[in-house]
Amino acid sequence: GEGEPASTKWNQPVHGIVPYRARGLAVPPRSQTRLSPLKGGREKESGITASYSGSRFKGDGRGASATNQEDGGLKLLFVPLGFSLSWLEDSLVRSTAHPHRSGSVGACSPASREFSVFFNETKRKLIDGGVVVGCLLPHPEPTIAEMLAVAGFDFVLLDGEHGTFEPRDIANAARAIELRGATPLARVTANRAEIILRYLDAGAHGVQVPTLNSGAEVDSAVRSAKYGPRGNRGLAGGRMSDFGMTAPIDEYTAIANEQTMVIGHVETATAVTNVEEFIEVDGLDVVFLGPVDLSHSLGHPGDLTHPTVIEAMERVASVIVPSNKALGVYAPTTESARAWIDRGARYILSGIDSFILEGATGYLEDIGR
Fold it and tell me: What is the pTM of this model?
């Protein structure tokens, strides 16, 4: 509990389940982690000792403990035969390299993280009223996903609608994105529960759902993305729940419901007419304008400057911006991104294809090719 000396906060046999509630530690180990016993159960204090960011972790044949350490930095790593390092390695990597794999029930706040199941930093920024910027990736290449995260995007949207991401491709791309501190999201092919389930179970921290036309359809998408009591998402102990190793299942489902994002597309004339219904749906985080499909639906395919298209987009913005939902838009250029941010949009999506093509053609033009 709060105020306890760090050395008393966890001290359980290494062969058991180590519950973690030591909020005072800078590097939180898993809340419930299986540690392998030393061979022979010897009580010799030849354990694993390391200090990082002001905290010391120590394990021996009798138990595990944590004590405060004034100076930070990795001091010592001693590995006895038979001791599992998964707890230490995972804790250091998760807490320092990618905070998105840590979460707590009831709040999108880094200060209150207790479990290593995912924490959605993009959602937290939106809740706090901030602007998030992401990149659409249609190609199932984890290295490119990682590069986009390293570049500094808040989220990478893995595209299963117009791109070629299948659920089996999501896991490795999500791992790469998480490792570099960004949020992996997925655009699914359709508003169907079995599709949304597989993309989320594979590792996406949220889904972007196309072609929603009414509040009822938005509610269906949310229910597919959430566990009970809000939704009907199927439950299994996969990678998003840390394979059932770090938190009781009821706590995991509560965390997942809190952290999972749902982004709903407005990209038809019908959706524009019914946009007020979207903001009434609990659990929807972002209302996303799909300008190209919208222009097609309005009879002006690809003409994003047509007065009818502009009028429709302005109607959506006028409803969403003052609401408790974030307005999302596709803004492939810096000029369009700035203009939409000035208009009140807070979920800005660009695209890797335009970056590649513009960079390549610009390079060739500059050298006279």
Answer: 0.71
Radius of gyration of the chain (CA): 23
Which residue has tokens 């479990």? 115
Tokens of 340: 């939409």
**Of 27 and 326, which is predicted with more confidence?**
326
Catalytic residues: 162
Cα pseudo-dihedral 139, 144, 145, 151, rounded to 10: -140
Neighbours of 368 (CB within 10 A): 5
Cα–Cα distance between 347 and 228 in angstroms, integer?
27
Minimal CA–CA distance to 187: which of 227, 224, 138? 138
| pLDDT tens digit sequence for 267-289 | 999 999 999 999 999 999 999 99
Furthest-apart CA pair in the chain: how many Å? 78
Cβ atoms of residues 323 and 275 within 8 Å: no
Measured CA to CA, the distance from residue 299 to residue 310 in angstroms comes to 13
Q: How many residues does the chain have?
A: 369
Quickly list H helices, the chain. 86-96, 121-127, 142-151, 167-179, 193-202, 215-225, 249-259, 269-273, 275-278, 291-297, 307-320, 334-343, 352-366
